């Protein structure tokens, strides 16, 4: 890579934040919706319609025209949807939900990425919300974060859990441990999707999750099949399970803590017992242009969500599993055709067996 | 453009902010400098050196490795500079100055782009600095903005003014009006670079600029050749000049105000008098991949700097000049070989003659 090419790439990076916000703002202002309803509006008419000066409308639409998202007719000054007109509404909604999360939960906070990495704490979350803890804890307290996150989580959950349970076999009557199962909704789903005589799902999490989890079990009528055990995931996980589920968070811990969690999972199983991990995973070839996880997750996790952790490649997880008394037996990724082109996370299911 | 390609492009936009901050943070943390001094450090040694956990070092360097900026040896776990090692220090410094400005003056503020466009005011500057006015006004009051802007301005000034004055002929003894010349340093430079018997440069700006401008004239020993006139640029510009200079701000006004400023310039000249405008200009083909101004300036100006204005193409300026009694006679751009690949602004000099 020549110095010239390197500096040109820096320029691409420099316009990353402005490109993002310019695109999102065209949606927020309602410019895209107006053009969908009324193709051929001029900047003056669009400005009137959304309450913005025509000069600003023209400026913000320049990038949309440059990208081919919107078309502009020089002669008449009329705008209409180009590529944006062809994208299905559900696809746009999903992409906008993710962009909304980036805006609310990340854009300002990542200003403090360097300080967050230095201190191992989310300095941005502290500065803007006076909050100590993770983004997910903050979502429980701050409505704007909860809204931006919830919209996304809802869309993602349907998308991910359906596929996850399709690929998960749980033998009849299994005793399942849902490790760090939070509010218990994952345990409930596990019971419902895999119900069999004697199947029991135990949600293990911090004691303060107990009340909400038990309430959810009752409200969903599964209190006979799901239970809660509270404690510290590093030290208090009980034994006596056939299968341990680790869903959605292994990437949020540094190596030492991942190993402790895997050790806890190991202690919960007999030799031959199963561990199933659902997590986003870096591609083996990190230059894969279809995978943008490396471009996103370090700043998301370290600067905005947890101040620690990070995705790993499968070989890293394999070696960590072996170090923890497991053998990785199978890795299942989604069919690429089922992953929307705007999706950043690429989740895998890793199946492992306790060997020692 | 297919819906799939459009959504994939959205993903590129979504990773824009994180990419930017991840790259900058690698410099801020000192990772790049350490690798320059000590090629072959592992994540553990790098982490020790800069006071950061090795897990975080690994995560932040993933993107550098993906881009080919940094090399990683799987066997030994050693990092070394790849493409970044080949970039001259002065080039890196210039790019980092720009990135620093984006971080301090834009990254948080652009969260409020939509509100800024709706209200015609810089909502982000108000929220984060409790400041009413432009980014340039705020730089006078807030040290972090001044520092991030000043570092950039210094690098840019040398770069731009040398070229500007090389291309500017000022006949001996001319009476020059430096319209909105601010602190007078541009007037001083004009006098120095183009000195001739009888050459006089008048800085016209708001009355509150008078003291600083006159002090600068005295300190540079040009008080006999440079003077200050205070007033409103829309209404109070005096007549009697041979040449009017408009440097660096025409893009910061909406159309109506640009026309008023051009009218003021017109009133300052006799027919045949010269107007010289220095401004960044959009390319005629807005899809030109070597030009990133459209990706940057709308959000910069509307969300972060002025809450109005925007770059235009040359034909737009030509028509606005004609509407204001000028004929555009010549447009000079920098030799592309003299524009660094990381540079976003592309400035042009537009020469016009008063026709009516």
Annotation keywords:
homodimer; 356 residues; alpha/beta; Rossmann fold; 2 domains; seven-stranded mixed sheet; three-stranded antiparallel sheet; 15 helices; 49% helix; elongated
Sum this structure up briefly.
With 356 residues, chain A is of the alpha/beta class. Helices cover 49% and strands 17% of the residues of chain A.
CATH architecture descriptor name of the largest domain in chain A: 3-Layer(aba) Sandwich
Look at the structure and name the CATH superfamily of the largest domain in chain A. Answer: Vaccinia Virus protein VP39
Kindly report the CATH topology of the largest domain in chain A: Rossmann fold
Radius of gyration of chain A: 23 Å
CATH classification, class level of the largest domain in chain A: Alpha Beta
The share of residues in helices of chain A is 40-55%
Chain-averaged pLDDT of chain A: 96
DSSP summary, beta strand count of chain A: 10
- Total domains of chain A, how many? 2
What does this 3D model show about the protein?
The structure is a homodimer of 356-residue chains. Chain A is elongated. In chain A, helix 6 (89-107) packs across helix 10. In chain A, strand 2 (70-73) and strand 3 form a beta hairpin. Chain A has 356 residues and is an alpha/beta fold. Chain A contains 15 helices and 10 strands. Chain A folds into 2 domains: 3-86, Winged helix-like DNA-binding domain superfamily/Winged helix DNA-binding domain (Arc Repressor Mutant, subunit A); 158-354, Rossmann fold, CATH 3.40.50.150. In chain A, 49% of the residues lie in helices and 17% in strands. In chain A, the strands form 2 sheets. Chain A has a 7-stranded mixed beta sheet with strand order 6-5-4-7-8-10-9, with helices on both faces. At the A-B interface, helix 1, helix 2, helix 5, helix 6 and helix 7 of A face helix 1, helix 2, helix 5, helix 6 and helix 7 of B.
